[in-house]
Write a structure and sequence with these properties.
This protein is α+β, with helices and mostly antiparallel strands and 347 residues long. It has helices at residues 26-31, 79-89, 105-116, 144-168, 175-196, 200-205, 213-240, 251-272, 276-284, 307-337, and strands at residues 13-15, 19-21, 40-44, 50-54, 67-71, 94-99, 121-127, 130-135. It has a four-stranded mixed sheet with strand order 5-6-8-7, with helices on one face. Strands 1-2 form a two-stranded antiparallel ribbon. Mean pLDDT is 84; it is low at 1-6 and 292-299.
Length: 347
């Protein structure tokens, strides 16, 4: 399948006595498997921009059958929730649960909880043996750069909560909220990538004009998932040790977290706003804050302080690897843009 970048300019041609026409780029037509005589449909934005895509196959209609999850019964905790999340992340708008026996009350609550944990999803029908969930999000309204920036804000909030726990020596109450919000945004990010991989027009609208860039975005999302896991667990551990964080026990967190927070902001901004000069600056700014000169890629657990705090520090060290990966991807994305030449100081 050809994904070559087409020339963005097309001359308007006369077609018949009173009509005009524009040719379609060959790489796009080949990628969409279009042939002479095929139909296309278009959407028009308020600014006048047109977005084309192949028309549905004859007889397909506008309605799409729900993704059906059917079993004699669901007895294990968490299985239904993960199936629903997986169907959402794969891009399904309607998800139907059917069972041979009525769903137990705890399973119904699991389904409702899964819907609450996904942006745009609601339970629209509920019967003893059947539940139907529907997604109401318009994917074209959620750009990949904007969602990544949102994840940056959530991760920074995690780090700020860690600082507050150490400073006040009291438990944070925002951990569960931040964890829930991060799961929502991450699931939507994966869903957007799944949909964009099947719809080039959507990929362009949400920030990936070349579908090959979707692979980069998937690595970005994976790194963000890892960071969320590290930060969420580190905050929980610090909460458990909150009353023992006086003095030198909390000093490493107090000193290092601000540096990590600043680096995270710089790296994500360089990742989203593609500038080779800025990406090189961020990359040269230092590999992981917690490992001077990038040495010791396998961070060890610190020996001093309460056990939970030591493990929290270790998780933050490990998170530095994810930030480093994002810094590398910032350079990859800037180079792929191909619109700059930068002289880099190699000294």
């Amino acid at each position: 399948m050809a994904w070559a970048t087409p020339n963005r300019e097309r001359r308007v041609l006369k077609a018949g006595h009173s009509s005009i026409a524009v040719t379609l780029p060959k790489p796009w037509a080949e990628a969409m498997n279009l042939r002479p005589g095929d139909l296309v449909v278009f959407d028009q934005n308020d600014d006048g921009a047109l977005y084309l895509k192949p028309a549905p196959a004859p007889g397909a209609g506008d309605a799409v059958a729900p993704y059906l999850v059917q079993a004699p019964a669901f007895d294990s905790d968490g299985v239904l929730e993960r199936l629903i999340v997986g169907a959402y992340r794969a891009g399904h708008d309607a998800i139907e649960i059917r069972t041979a026996v009525p769903l137990a009350a705890e399973r119904v609550e699991e389904v409702v909880g899964a819907a609450r944990g996904l942006l745009g999803v609601s339970v629209v029908a509920q019967e003893p043996n059947r539940v139907l969930l529907q997604n109401f999000i318009d994917p074209s309204k959620y750009g990949l750069p904007q969602l990544v920036q949102r994840m940056k804000m959530i991760l920074v909030a995690f780090l700020e909560e860690m600082e507050e726990v150490v400073r006040r020596r009291s438990r944070s109450r925002r951990g569960a909220t931040l964890d829930e919000e991060s799961r929502k945004v991450l699931s939507l990010l994966v869903r957007q990538l799944s949909l964009a991989s099947r719809d080039w027009a959507l990929a362009r609208r949400i920030g990936s004009p070349d579908p090959r860039q979707l692979l980069e975005w998937r690595v970005v999302v994976h790194a963000l998932e890892e960071l969320t896991s590290y930060y969420g667990e580190a905050l929980a551990l610090l909460n458990d040790d909150a009353d023992r964080l006086a003095g030198e026990n909390g000093a490493p967190i107090t000193h290092r977290v601000p540096e990590l927070k600043s680096r995270l902001k710089d790296v994500v901004d360089a990742l989203v706003h593609r500038s080779l000069e800025r990406a090189c600056e961020v990359y040269q700014g230092g590999t992981s804050t917690f490992r001077p000169n990038g040495e010791n890629r396998r961070a060890s657990v610190p020996a001093r302080g309460p056990a939970g705090t030591r493990l929290a520090r270790h998780l933050l060290e490990r998170s530095g690897l994810c930030v480093d990966l994002l810094a590398e991807l910032a350079i990859d994305r800037a180079v792929a843009a191909g619109n700059e030449t930068v002289l880099v100081d190699a000294a």
